[in-house]
């Protein structure tokens, strides 16, 4: 068989790399054209129907089914006019992917012929036979139905001539089978708890929105290389591959000029994103070669999450046109940076106040401090659960890697706020006063050189080594993985904050009942929260070994391995928080725990199988071929120089021996990993099976890789069957 790597290299070198995508219209002319947003609703719906949808979006009011037909019909008219032929309920099952089952609009007319039809009942609810999605036992009862139900809070959109209607996905019992349901519930809980506190400052606050800005990192690989690497194709990461002589050490890719081919791809997907109403703002090269990032402007969490998933879909589609493959995996290449999804999180009132923005007056600062302290207190209490929420087979390859956030939680707040917090901690019950303007004066000007105007540095210096950092007017949760649906981390963050906000209010009320003024009562509780959560605050280098020792001393629990971290979902304090905030029942939490373990086992099983195939069917045969050519060479030399051959062939003989060693080791390790799987597969309970996979299967992955990578270093480059790192990681 021809060497597939050679073919891929040929294909790659003939690529037309200079083509730019051209969209000549200004973005403002087509922005949002593929979304059924409020502006279109106004045009396509009756006044009554429009108001019903707006009330549903703004205040979570239920839409009267009698209006559903009108709404569906308006939506359909718009979609059909836009060329849509099908519709689908679009949902987020527990797979990190999205799901869709298309139905055509056309229906037969009684007297013959067809017409486009879309009923209100179909808009509101469907029962896709989605029984094959992971459900953690929630659908194993006699009545295994699953329903999707319309989420009017996130606008319908068109992709590939299909009207996609964002929906939740629940079991017939109402138990959630998806990521959106708990997210919506958590947003609701957060709103309720936050409004109660805001009302103490301003009676006009009736709603607090959970805002989210998601930065998405990703890799790009030429399609030809991707297709010739079974590991990339099936596992989205390279299971073997020696690092290239040069990768990111010169730091010349980060923020560098974007290569032409990549720019063409970016412009293309950005255009589609704009049409879908996604306000992309930032694009740049990331640290690792061929690693990039985009970030839209933040928006309401529910919509931001949907838009992030929409982006992942369209990027994959558009990449195909450019003969590229987008890799969202957290650690597709060893030795270079992995990818995350930084979640920028804040709370904004209906009156337009960002509750995490330090205020201008002592009073607004008191409000800021209340929320600031509640977030930190919540993160402290549930730090292990929050880290558990980002744990997965793939993200564990990234976390704690000395480039990604460490696998133990801490909160970074910056120098100015640290000083402020320290002064609050020193307050005594006698001198409880709200903090003065001066103390929260967080912006200072920086003078650089004469011709450069003065700049205001961020309130906080940046600390990239922290998994959870305050960045001036929001918190940034950086440990979240690039391939996941961030809803799973966000509903947990929302829940833990809501729980503390509730507690905050209760404690303030109690202090006031004892005679303290409202301001003093608040200051007292803020101080209490900050003191209680002191251990989670860390301003130093999160990558350092000292920090890990220190974190352990402080009793902070990090993630050692994914199956262990999953247990946090069902710990007593987690279940109390989930059920107390109405986000997940105990049964739902257990179901999720099962699904996480199941996914872990399946993914690791697939990786182990692919690695076995690569080793047995690609590497060992290649090693033997090369070894044969060495043997023939030695034989020939021996014939010509019978007396001197041993000296002349010293290198070849040594190599022949070395290769035999590698072959035997690889063969043995593959046998061992197969055996380990067999033993683990016999374990009935999925949680125990996951633990066994981690303990007995996982370690072999690394051993095999190490030998395979050594082998790559000795085999004739001509014969090596898989595209190498130096080939895959560079576009020029
Ligand atoms: P960074 O410098 O951290 O890489 P980026 O500009 O790449 O920042 O992305 C920052 C993200 O944070 C964007 O999505 C941005 O819209 C979002 N963001 C900014 N302010 C807020 C806020 N108050 N609340 C939530 N997200 C925010
Ligand atoms: Mg960024």
Structure description:
This protein is an alpha+beta fold and 732 residues long. Among the domains are: 31-177, Glutamine synthetase, N-terminal domain (Ubiquitin-like (UB roll)), CATH 3.10.20; 600-728, Four Helix Bundle (Hemerythrin (Met), subunit A), CATH 1.20.120. Helix content is 48%, strand content 12%. It is built from 25 helices and 18 strands. Helix 23 (650-681) runs antiparallel to helix 24 (686-714). The model has no long low-confidence stretch (mean pLDDT 91). The structure holds adenosine-5'-diphosphate and magnesium ion. The site of adenosine-5'-diphosphate (ADP) has 14 residues, from strand 10, strand 12 and strand 15.
The secondary-structure class comes to alpha+beta
Give the mean pLDDT: 91
Name every ligand kind in the structure: adenosine-5'-diphosphate, magnesium ion
**Major sheet description:** 9 strands, mixed
State the name of the first-level CATH class of the domain at 31-177: Alpha Beta
- The CATH architecture category of the domain at 31-177 equals Roll
What would CATH call the homologous superfamily of the domain at 31-177? Answer: Glutamine synthetase, N-terminal domain
Strand element count? 18
The CATH topology of the domain at 31-177 corresponds to: Ubiquitin-like (UB roll)
- What share of residues is helical? 40-55%
Low-confidence stretches: none
- Rg from Cα: 29 Å
Sheet-strand content, in percent, reads: 5-15%
Tags for this entry?
alpha+beta, Four Helix Bundle (Hemerythrin (Met), subunit A), 9-stranded mixed beta sheet, 7-stranded mixed beta sheet, globular, binds adenosine-5'-diphosphate
